[in-house]
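User: Hey, my collaborator sent me this sequence without any context and asked if I could get a structure. I don't really work with proteins. Can you help?
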Amino acid sequence: MWTLESIAKHIDGIVKGDKTYQVGSIATLESAHSQQISFLANPKYKKYLVNTKAGAVIVHSEMASAVPNQAIVVDDPYIAYAKTASLLNPVELGQQGIHSRAYVSSDSDIHPTACIGAQVVIESGVVIAEGVVIGPGCVLQQGVKVGKNTRLVANITLCVKVQIGQRVIIHPGVVIGADGFGIANDKGKWIKVPQLGSVIVGNDVEIGANTTIDKGAIENTIIGTGVKLDNQIQIAHNVVIGEHTVIAGCAGIAGSTQIGKYCIIGGGVAISGHLTICDRVQLTGMTMVTKSITTSGSYSSGIPAEPTKQWHRSVVRYRQMDKLADRVKRLEVKNKPLT
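Assistant: No problem. I've predicted the 3D structure and written it out in structure-token form, which is a compact way to encode the shape of the chain:
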């Protein structure tokens, strides 16, 4: 159990009510009981505030008077909620040492504080720093390096010479450093182009389940510090992603594209290869990018969902645009004023 005073110190908040009141977990406004804390970040959930049974609620100062019990007042309730949830639900780390059913090469370098789970395979030349957790079923190939306090949850493959920074979280099914899609057409026959680079992942990165990051063809693929990747993302060879960029699920980034810092890339976005996306660009969901973006801002493409009949009419009109443009040009020429 945690006192509201101790939680408030952790999230830079101010308690309104009993500072010694204790809560043990976090819940929604609708479901919380008296020994739980909740939060209000989205105004559309304000209707649940008056009847909440939560022992305390994290709110902005504008909502504090509407809380029926204790409140912790903060500048940003959603950020405060995230910090509170982390405080009340610390990650349970495994027991230090190497599981009896793990295979570890004799010439690997594993810090004694690391935790190596069952069915893990660690090949020669692997270096694992202090506090690292390698979950069950992971494979670390030759020359892999893993930084301090990084956690590989389960069934993750790090291919040859991949480098992972500190405090990285990698979720199940991720593959980092597999061959990129390098092929060349030799007189009608596709031949493989050897992929000679690797992947470097910076500090404080999180990589979602079943995401794949290909190694570079010659230079390395690079994921910058603080990058957050959702599930099922494909990042091709030689891509560079700048610091603190976030990418939502099912996005695909083709080879040798460079993405700047602090970008926000929505779900299902497709980015062609050999492009440059500057810093602080937002790409809304399902956007298709075929040219470099050199000015910060929000970009979109695609047609939002609409009734099928209306969609068919829109497609017909779209296909008629070239003919319509030609008609407009002819009319402009015909009606051009005499000078």
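In plain terms: The first strand starts at residue 2 and ends at 3. You can pass these tokens on to your collaborator as they are.
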